[in-house]
Amino acid sequence: MQQRHLSVCLAAALGAIFLFRGGASSERVLRSENIGMSQEQRRRTVGGYSDVTSEELSSAEFLELATFVMQEYARGSSSSQFITGLSAEEISGIQTQVLEGSRQVVAGLNYRLTIGITRNGACIGALKDVTIYKPLPAMHAPPRVTSWGKYLSCTDEAIASRIQESEETKALMVDRSFEEEREEAEPDA
């Protein structure tokens, strides 16, 4: 009986040592994997949304997505009427700017965007957190708006200032391209 008790105690002690060493070992592995990673990178959830850069926001990819959203709205895909009193023709005259964006890799891509809406440089409003699903090319399926998010009016100071900044940035880019063209045409001037 005493020998049996000793065997049970020895097994329990070995089990505790094994668990302790295993936990410390896996903790060391986790720490070594995190070397060189920023705190922000460690916090990101695998499969979660990742923010995109301001350069990406002004890229053709994101401008096409914003145009697609407005085309879908004009077709009546949204049950909400956030832009009231505008015909489909008037909606086609609207300019869009992607103010914020993030991307999630799934079986394709999910985009979550804040889209500023202007006409003739005047703020009409914005769509915040509109979500577009773009399937993989092999799926031969078109993109679709999966969530219209919420409408923000131009009285929202953050939206109005972001749209203004975007308009100013576009104007500066146009000025720069004119200067570059002039310098190419008149190199000694």
From TrEMBL:
SUPFAM superfamilies: Cystatin/monellin (SSF54403)
Signal peptide range: 1-26
Keyword Signal annotated: yes
Domain of life: Eukaryota
Keywords: Signal
Protein name, UniProt field: Cystatin domain-containing protein
